[in-house]
Design a protein that fits this description.
Elements lengths: L1 E12 L2 E12 L3 E5 L6 H8 L7 E6 L2 E2 L4 H5 L2 E5 L10 H11 L4 H14 L15 H11 L7 E5 L7 H16 L3 E6 L2 H7 L2 E6 L2 E7 H6 L5 E7 L12 E7 L2 E6 L5 H10 L4 E7 L3 H9 L4
Parallel strand pairs: 3-8, 3-9, 6-7, 7-8
Antiparallel strand pairs: 1-2, 1-4, 4-5, 9-10, 11-13, 11-14, 12-13
Helix pairs in contact: 3-4, 5-6
Length: about 300
């Protein structure tokens, strides 16, 4: 059974169509990254899937339940982390989380155990009794992240959870996302940072101006361009002009070696004979699939 299924989902604000006939299916246990620039419709879609907003038309099923008639039951099965931190500054992490746990129907004893376990996982246990007002943005978001896990949801939505965070908090949240997904939780994460999705996603969907223009397994999306990139690393030499190699795009010199990047679509078989004819000392050859940003630019005609 799929965790999320939408069919012809539309959301309008007057004459403006924020979502245009979105149809997608996300499998149980997937880690699905929803990509696109600001204004693409990612957050609107997340708000609908979590029951915070009603669609104009279309159908949504979450964990097999119909969003239009079983929204209360659905909310018990999903958690949501947004870039907007929802915490009370005068309270400590434990006090904040106990309050939210009570609203979710989690008993105090069970909630305390889960709170301490989760605070430790996000490296915040030493701060459990300090007021939230003294925390950095990254520290607050780590506590906010825990808030969405208190009731042990089956599906976790994360809307730009690392936006503007320091590297430590970003890495902590990213590691937690992987761990939660490995434990069986389905995760839907929105981001406009293509590199973040490449590091973590199993599947991706690319949104552009309210439309879902591509959706599928990460490797399938990357392979859709059928234009791998080749990088040849050779020993540096002032004798050769690398620009003369057919397919050459750019070069980088570091510590006595040159990394030569070739234009998308050029293969090792195309490039290697020319490199060998020049009698260059080859150290390494690497062929990579197109990046998600390459795919995005190709599909939309604009950068992310």
């Amino acid at each position: 059974m799929a965790a999320i299924v939408t069919s012809n989902l539309v959301k309008k604000y007057g004459s403006f169509e924020a979502l245009k006939n979105i149809s997608l299916s996300i499998g149980n246990g997937d880690l699905y990254c929803l990509l696109g620039p600001n204004g693409a419709g990612k957050s609107t879609l997340i708000r609908i899937l979590t029951g915070l907003m009603k669609p104009t038309s279309g159908n949504v099923r979450v964990s097999g339940m119909d969003l239009s008639s079983e929204v209360r039951e659905i909310r018990q099965k999903v958690g949501l982390v947004s870039e907007r931190v929802i915490l009370y500054d005068r309270l400590t992490p434990v006090e904040n989380l106990l309050f939210f746990a009570s609203m979710l129907g989690v008993g105090r004893k069970a909630a305390l155990k889960r709170i301490y376990d989760l605070l430790e996982k996000v490296d915040m246990l030493d701060w459990k009794n300090k007021p939230v007002r003294i925390f950095s943005t990254g520290m607050k978001q780590r506590v906010n992240f825990i808030r969405a896990l208190l009731h042990d949801p089956e599906i976790l939505f994360l809307d730009e959870p690392t936006l503007g965070l320091d590297p430590h908090s970003t890495r902590t949240i990213r590691n937690m996302v992987r761990e939660l997904n490995e434990s069986g939780i389905t995760i839907i994460l929105t981001t406009h940072v293509m590199g973040e999705a490449e590091n973590i996603a199993k599947s991706v969907g690319i949104m552009h101006r309210g439309e879902l223009i591509s959706s599928g397994k990460l490797e399938d999306i990357q392979g859709s361009l059928k234009k791998d990139r080749v990088t040849v690393t050779v020993k540096d030499s002032s004798v050769f002009s690398f620009e003369k190699i057919e397919g050459y795009q750019s070069e980088t010199r570091v510590d006595g070696v040159v990394k030569i990047d070739f234009q998308p679509g050029w293969t090792i078989e195309n490039i290697l004979p020319a490199v060998l004819r020049m009698k260059l000392e080859v150290i390494d050859i690497e062929q990579k699939k197109p990046s998600l940003e390459d795919v995005f630019v190709k599909l939309t005609g604009e950068s992310s």
